[in-house]
């Protein structure tokens, strides 16, 4: 979990556009950091800072689409808003396919851009929150003993304690203890909650039919 | 002649030196003026010695031969005639006679050697003449010496030894008379021929519509054929002087013509010019003139003569071709800019985007705080800069799209390269291409049309981009543009790292309608070559050692300027 204020990263090889965009975002009360080239961004970007990326498409050396791919390869989920001088359809299709949240042609209307940026920041916030929750759950999951994990997978697949005991070659009472322990460790009250959690942690899909 | 007394003999011999002096001078003058030969100092020596001998003859002894004549010896010769031969003591100055004779012989022989070397007909005549003179001198003077010394008994027989000179001279004279008769005949014939040739010439002149003229520079008077006057729209009766001629020339061309004439008068000798004349009816004609200046021996121009001809039709055809060429180049330029329109729009769009962002930011700042003037001032300054930038893009575009006449001016090729790169900046970025630019420092200026040279570069760069379009190797997505000074001309090269040019195609890439592209007309390189040739330069291509091809062109440096 990171608490720093959301920042809008702007990458454009045109200094005057870069400066003007940063100024516009600043006038809308947003934090903006500028980068004159994709390489500069890749070299200095801190993935832990929340926010979004406003990216020019046509740039020398590495273009915007390539930067978007490079970020994805690094596992970054920073939302990307594309700006382009001449928005041709194939390019915007590619950008959206690659996960861009929005695509604007220059000159851009300030309200549209700022709204899109707010959306993107919100999206990033939610994603980061979900990511944080998930990692918390994973930490809790990691606290389970191997036997408890085994029991968990059987429980969420809908089996009764008796059936589980039979499969694991133990008595029903032992299973009940395991079951209480893992519920406590995972901080859930009901079976329904446990199933939902298992689903989020990807345990259910890994079960055989 | 016969002297009866010693005194008579002495006086006779004394006065004999006067005709001898005259004879010597006559021979010297003849050689100098008739043959135009003989050394001047030797001529003066001969005359001087002979004059001295004459003076000595009157001032020493009884004459130059004898200090004193002691007696006369009477000798009988054939026919019963008797002659008197003086006898006595010789004058010690006697030697002056033979000395002047030897000097004369030396002068004559030297002159005839000179003439002989000239190897003309005169040489032969000179030798005959000098031989006869030498013979006469040796015979006459030698004989006189012997008589005076009393060694032989004989009268002074100058006339006999003078005979060869008379024979030689009369032979030459009769030859000359004969020759002059022949010359007169030939002159008559050639006069007739000249008349015929003049008639033919004037026929040719009028058929070719040539105007002949001759300018007497000292009196500033121009004579011209009627045809010549008609070419310049000058009436037959009008007095023609140089300023009147200049007035007939179209105002814009007047100064160059005057300068060219001045140059030929200053020593160039030859004059050539093409200029327009405005005829009284208002029509403008193109004339070409060629002339030659004659100078006197001090190098002062005396007269200038030459011809003029109407070249309006040729000029018109040339202008038509030039116009078509311009139109073709313009068409190709427009097509090329059409291909680049996306990136050109981008170039224009960038500053517009910046302006909009800035303006919107300013409005927001003012909404939040009406006193945010510093911020707004910064913004307005940036808006002004971006607006100028957009204006420059439009200016460059307008320059390339215009369809003016070719405008030659001194250009910095580095500047031309940079302008084109600015224009292509976003196209190159879109194509994901990097350009390595190496511009030579201190490149001399070239004379050229900015737009046409930009067009050539634009074309070569677009070709380079197309050549590397297919490649996936990042290092190959690169163009190399260099300028350099090769000693005679400014050379520009545009190299790519594409597939290069197939050997079979190498000779054909500059041919019209030859293309390896799916979308090309095959005219780009043809037009480029036409443009470069029109700049007296060269355009060629070569494959690189590693991969790809490089196009080179040269433009001669602007003469008289080195920066």
Number of strands of chain B: 14
Name of the CATH homologous superfamily of the largest domain in chain B: Histidine kinase-like ATPase, C-terminal domain
Looking across the biggest beta sheet of chain B, what order are the strands in?
Answer: 4-3-7-6-5
Low-confidence stretches of chain A: none
What is the CA-atom radius of gyration of chain A, in angstroms? 24 Å
What's the CATH class label of the largest domain in chain A? Alpha Beta
The CATH topology of the largest domain in chain B comes to Heat Shock Protein 90
State the separation between the terminal residues of chain A, measured CA to CA: 36 Å
CATH fold annotation of the largest domain in chain A: Rossmann fold
In terms of DSSP E residues, the strand content of chain A is 5-15%
Oligomer: heterodimer
Helix content of chain B: 55-70%
Low-confidence stretches of chain B: none
Number of β-strand runs of chain A: 5
Kindly report the greatest chain-chain contact and the residue count on each side. Answer: A-B, 24 and 31 residues
* Spatial shape of chain B: elongated
What does this protein structure show overall?
The complex is a heterodimer of chains A (209) and B (563). Chain A is of the alpha/beta class and 209 residues long. Chain A has two domains: 7-136, Rossmann fold (3-Layer(aba) Sandwich), CATH 3.40.50.2300; 144-201, Arc Repressor Mutant, subunit A (Orthogonal Bundle). Helices cover 56% and strands 12% of the residues of chain A. Chain A has helices at residues 15-27, 38-44, 64-73, 89-97, 110-143, 146-156, 161-168, 172-186, 191-201; strands spanning 7-11, 31-35, 51-56, 80-84, 102-105. In chain A, β3, α3 (64-73) and β4 (80-84) form a beta-alpha-beta unit. Chain A is elongated, with a radius of gyration of 24 Å. The mean pLDDT of chain A is 84. By secondary structure, chain B is an alpha+beta fold. Chain B folds into three domains: 6-177, no CATH class; 208-310, 2-Layer Sandwich (Beta-Lactamase), CATH 3.30.450; 323-556, Heat Shock Protein 90. Chain B is 56% helix and 18% strand. The longest helix of chain B has 50 residues, at 158-207. Chain B has a five-stranded antiparallel sheet, sandwiched between helices. Classes of the chains: A alpha/beta (209), B alpha+beta (563). The A-B interface holds A 13-14, 16-17, 19-21, 23-24, 26-28, 58-61, 63, 83, 85-86, 106-108, 110 and B 342, 345-346, 349-358, 360-362, 364-365, 368, 379, 382, 385-386, 389, 426, 428-430, 432-434.
């Amino acid at each position: 979990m990171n608490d720093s204020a959301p920042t809008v990263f702007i990458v454009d090889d045109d200094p005057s556009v870069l400066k003007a965009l940063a100024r516009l975002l600043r006038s809308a009360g947003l934090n903006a950091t500028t980068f004159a080239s994709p390489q500069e961004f890749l070299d200095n970007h801190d993935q832990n800072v929340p926010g979004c990326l406003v990216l020019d498409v046509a740039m020398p050396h590495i273009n915007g689409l390539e930067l978007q791919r490079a970020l994805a390869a690094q596992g970054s989920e920073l939302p990307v808003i594309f700006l382009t001088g001449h928005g041709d359809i194939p390019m915007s299709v590619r950008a959206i396919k690659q996960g861009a949240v929005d695509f604007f042609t220059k000159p851009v209307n300030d309200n549209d851009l700022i709204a899109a940026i707010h959306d993107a920041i919100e999206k990033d916030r939610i994603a980061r929150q979900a990511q944080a929750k998930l990692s918390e759950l994973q930490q809790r999951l990691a606290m389970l003993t191997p036997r408890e994990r085994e029991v968990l997978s059987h429980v969420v697949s809908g089996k009764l304690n008796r059936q589980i005991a039979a499969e694991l070659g133990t008595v029903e009472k032992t299973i009940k203890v395991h079951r209480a322990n893992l519920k406590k460790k995972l901080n859930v009250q009901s079976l329904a909650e446990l199933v939902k959690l298992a689903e989020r942690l990807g345990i259910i899909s890994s079960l055989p039919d | 002649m016969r002297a009866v007394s010693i005194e008579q003999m002495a006086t006779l011999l004394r006065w004999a030196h006067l005709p001898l002096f005259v004879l010597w001078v006559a021979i010297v003058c003849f050689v100098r003026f008739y043959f135009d030969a003989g050394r001047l100092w030797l001529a003066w020596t001969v005359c001087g010695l002979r004059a001295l001998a004459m003076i000595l003859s009157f001032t020493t002894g009884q004459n130059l031969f004898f200090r004193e004549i002691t007696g006369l010896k009477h000798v009988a010769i054939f026919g019963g005639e008797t002659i008197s031969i003086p006898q006595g003591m010789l004058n010690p100055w006697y030697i002056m006679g033979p000395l002047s004779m030897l000097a004369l012989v030396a002068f004559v022989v030297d002159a005839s050697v000179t003439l002989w070397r000239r190897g003309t007909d005169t040489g032969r005549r000179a030798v005959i003449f000098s031989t006869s003179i030498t013979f006469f001198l040796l015979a006459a003077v030698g004989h006189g010496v012997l008589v005076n010394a009393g060694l032989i008994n004989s009268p002074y027989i100058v006339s006999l030894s003078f005979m060869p000179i008379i024979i030689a001279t009369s032979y030459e004279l009769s030859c000359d008379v004969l020759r002059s008769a022949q010359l007169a005949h030939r002159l008559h014939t050639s006069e007739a021929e000249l008349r015929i040739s003049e008639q033919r010439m004037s026929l040719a002149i009028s058929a070719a519509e040539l105007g002949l003229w001759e300018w007497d520079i000292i009196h500033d008077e121009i004579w011209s054929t009627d045809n010549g006057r008609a070419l310049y729209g000058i009436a037959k009766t009008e007095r023609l002087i140089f300023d009147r001629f200049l007035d007939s020339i179209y105002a814009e061309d007047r100064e160059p013509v005057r300068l060219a004439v001045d140059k030929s008068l200053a020593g160039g000798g030859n004059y050539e010019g093409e200029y327009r004349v405005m005829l009284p009816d208002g029509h403008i004609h193109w004339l070409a003139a060629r002339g030659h200046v004659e100078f006197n021996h001090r190098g002062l121009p005396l007269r200038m003569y030459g011809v003029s001809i109407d070249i309006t039709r040729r000029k018109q055809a040339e202008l038509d071709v030039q116009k078509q060429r311009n139109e073709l180049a313009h068409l190709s330029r427009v097509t090329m800019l059409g291909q680049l329109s996306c990136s050109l729009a981008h170039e224009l769009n960038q500053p517009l985007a910046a302006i909009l962002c800035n303006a919107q930011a300013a409005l927001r700042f003012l909404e939040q705080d009406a006193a945010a003037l510093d911020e707004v001032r910064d913004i307005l300054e940036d808006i002004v800069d971006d607006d100028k930038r957009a204006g420059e893009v439009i200016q460059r575009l307008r320059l390339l799209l215009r369809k003016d006449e070719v405008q030659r001016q001194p250009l910095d090729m580095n500047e031309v390269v940079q302008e084109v790169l600015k224009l292509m900046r976003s196209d190159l970025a879109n194509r994901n291409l990097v350009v390595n630019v190496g511009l030579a420092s201190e490149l001399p200026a070239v004379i050229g049309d900015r737009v046409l040279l930009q067009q050539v570069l634009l074309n070569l760069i677009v070709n380079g981009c197309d050549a590397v379009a297919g490649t996936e190797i990042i290092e190959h997505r690169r163009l190399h543009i260099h300028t350099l000074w090769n000693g005679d001309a400014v050379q520009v090269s545009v190299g790519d790292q594409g597939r290069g040019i197939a050997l079979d195609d190498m000779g054909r890439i500059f041919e019209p309608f030859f293309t390896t592209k799916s979308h090309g007309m095959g005219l780009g390189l043809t037009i480029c070559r036409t443009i470069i040739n029109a700049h007296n330069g060269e355009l060629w291509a070569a494959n690189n050692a590693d991969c790809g091809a490089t196009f080179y062109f040269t433009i001669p440096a602007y003469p008289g300027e080195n920066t």
